[in-house]
Design goal:
Blueprint: E1 3-8, E2 14-15, E3 30-34, H1 43-51, H2 73-79, E4 90-92, H3 94-100, E5 104-109, H4 119-132, E6 137-141, H5 145-157, E7 161-166, H6 171-178, E8 183-187, H7 191-202, E9 208-210, H8 216-219, H9 224-233, E10 241-245, H10 250-265, E11 274-280, H11 285-292, H12 317-327, E12 330-334, H13 336-350, H14 356-371, E13 379-384, H15 408-421
Parallel strand pairs: 5-13, 6-7, 6-9, 7-8, 10-11, 10-13, 11-12
Antiparallel strand pairs: 1-2, 1-3, 4-5
């Protein structure tokens, strides 16, 4: 069993592997600790076990926080429980690279998950650990994608669920949550208000596993599987640079943790990638702190179309700042218009339609390229975390459609006008 205990990220105090998320001594966040020393003895065998594993995140069960999970057969058992998340495409984006003046760009398209976002990864891990701990209900505070993932996972596992969301969430995400039969709670306020409420409720409902509150240390570990997959898909090598969105900062920091774990074991080759974080200007406390050279992320009231990133008081903000600085990356923000342009740029060069969070990522990638921050020799991976059908409104006004009479003359006349206009 590789997982050993929980520990405070600030003071290091160790805790048992129970449903807790904050240190009793210094109130720092807790994270999962492992002992991977036994895996280092035969890296070749470990690689074979991974590549022959199930086509989902449970091929990486050795690196996930399940107490009852054991290598080999248990991965196959876990892969048949609930929804199969992970093993999403890593697409070489040569036309996007050419447009940006770069040599090699890859797009990790995590919209290819059961509910079309990376949240299926973290929920799969949280739900598996919640079942180990004996919880009977799944719950969450969400900006949208997590709501979809928790509602769907609970339905697949036959568990009741409660999903708390801001009342002004995009309609597509609300519909794609309620359809699974969850108890959908719309809160009058922003995500930070929702999260505070869920923290209070989690203290009163002993049988509820709030995936991103009392189960947060386990839940966040699911994001590491993005790094594992990227490295495996690149032939067990690290990329030179990763550009990923930042909401709470958990995804961004856990991707780096995944690369670090495999590098320490000698499972992959290459240096630690430079980590670039991406935020929307209307909710950019981490990017602002980075620009100001401070370690303090001052809370903000979100005002952006990128609602899935609209966390004004990011829990992992300080750790995201440290990561960007020590890896030679950066954290940038982009306007809503740049976000829309990023969505369009990705769609027209790769055929991948992303939600607003992906538009933030691509817009920051373009900013880095234009600024000359990326060397032409670098292999760059842009992480796309969700499907564009979740935020359809943001595509409005970015293109025109022809309207013609049902005749070839009308078609040719319209085509001539458009050619001249172009």
């Amino acid at each position: 069993m590789a997982v050993t205990n929980l520990a405070c990220r600030e003071c290091g105090t160790a805790y048992e592997l129970t449903a807790q998320y904050v240190c009793h001594k210094c109130f720092g966040p807790l994270e999962v600790k492992y002992d991977h020393s036994a895996l280092a003895d035969d890296v070749a065998s470990l690689r074979r076990r991974i590549t022959s594993g199930p086509q989902n995140i449970w091929r990486y069960v050795d690196f996930l926080p399940l107490v009852d999970g054991q290598p080999g057969p248990s991965a196959k058992i876990l892969s048949r429980v609930g929804l199969p998340a992970g093993c999403t495409p890593l697409v070489r984006a040569d036309r996007l690279a050419e447009r940006l003046g770069l040599k090699e760009v890859w797009v990790k398209n995590d919209a290819h998950n059961p509910t079309h976002s990376f949240k299926d990864r973290v929920v799969s891990v949280a739900a598996a650990r919640a079942r180990e701990l004996g919880f009977d209900t799944l719950a969450c505070a969400s900006t949208g994608n997590l709501a979809n993932a928790v509602a769907a996972a609970a339905a697949a596992l036959g568990m009741p669920s409660y999903v708390f969301i801001p009342s002004d969430l995009e309609e597509q995400k609300i519909l794609a949550t309620g359809v699974y039969g969850t108890n959908l709670v719309k809160v009058k306020g922003n995500y930070d208000d929702v999260n505070r409420l869920c923290t209070e409720v989690s203290g009163e409902q002993d049988s509820w596993a709030f995936v991103n509150v009392n189960m947060r240390p386990y839940y966040s570990e699911g994001s590491k599987t993005l790094a594992y997959e990227i490295a495996e898909q690149l032939g067990f090598r690290t990329p030179d640079r990763v550009v990923a969105p930042i909401a709470s900062g958990s995804l961004y920091t856990k991707i780096a943790k995944g690369f670090d774990e495999w590098r320490e074991l000698g499972l992959i080759e290459g240096d630690a990638p430079a980590m670039n974080g991406a935020q929307a200007l209307g909710c950019s406390p981490v990017a602002t702190a980075y620009a100001e050279g401070t370690d303090v992320c001052r809370p903000v009231k979100p005002d952006t179309i990128a609602k899935s990133l609209a966390i004004g008081n990011p829990a992992d903000g300080p750790y995201a700042l440290d990561l960007a600085r020590r890896t030679g990356g950066a954290i940038d923000s982009v306007s809503d218009e740049e976000v829309r342009a990023g969505i369009r740029l990705l769609a027209t060069t790769t055929g991948i339609f992303t939600e607003t969070a992906g538009g933030v990522t691509v817009a920051v990638l373009r900013k880095l390229a234009e600024r000359g921050d990326i060397d032409r020799s670098e292999r760059v991976v842009a992480v796309i975390t969700g499907e564009g059908l979740k935020t359809l409104e943001c595509a409005r006004g970015t293109f025109e459609a022809w309207q013609i009479e049902p005749s070839t003359d009308s078609f040719e006349a319209a085509r001539e006008r458009l050619v001249v206009a172009a």
